[in-house]
Amino acid sequence: MRFVQLSGGRFDGRLTDIRLDRMQLLRDVANASLAKQGTAPSGTMVFNLPMDAHGEGRFAGRALTFPTCIVSGSELSELCSPRRLDLVCIAVERRWLLEMAENQGRASAARRLRKIQPFLYGDTARMWPLKTAVSDIFADLPVLARALDQAASRLAIENEIADLLLDILSEDEERLCIDTPQKRIAEKARAYVMEHAELQPSVDDICRHVGVSRRKLQNCFHDTFGFSPTHFLRTMRLDRVRRDLRAAGRGPVSIGDIAARWGFWHWSRFANEYRALFGELPSETLRRPRD
Questions:
Q1: Residue 290 has what DSSP assignment?
Q2: Pick from 4, 70, 104, 128: most CB atoms within 10 A?
């Protein structure tokens, strides 16, 4: 999983990973808006189930009002999460779930499992039993850990969750078009920036590379990510400073040199922007224990 913090304030988050035989449940709780992207094991379907959310996010180049369940294959398009999100990602072996759907005569669910394309499902009455079951799984992790030592318990959890997922897939969905012209331009621009990050390309450099006007690039970024190219460049550079500070050795480290490496020459302005985004000064990041 790769992510970049987009909203200001000290980041607080946690990941809880539960692995079964044909299913994985990953709970991701964060108090900041993040641009996140990742992959699940090949051959899986991923159900992104929001347990709690505050604010609007963006997915596949469109605004996304939570709580909304995103269902996709193992390659997940970038999600710009709301400012606060408690999300459980359920990755299930697609062939196993498809066989279950076919055996139970769930034609609609089976049809969607064969297509492997993103769908959206709203916060319907059928979503609540799934949320309740998932909450119960994460409610007492020490007890769960002992239960998972038994194959019968693992199978019981998988079957219960799979039945509830098939209930969701049996409902009407909203299909997502994840490849629009605006999104292709924005993705190409962002890839160029990430590949040439140390050269610190400007907005004009990006426009020349992509072959669009500044206004066109601005519109494509807003439509796809919900923020401007300028905001993206500044956030990316601040994120690179933070990563370098976190990766610094135990010896003497010059915060000024690291900041200057990423184009921040005005110390007080840099420190203020850094604290506004991450909720702490660069010196505090440097003093934090290394992961």
A1: P
A2: 70
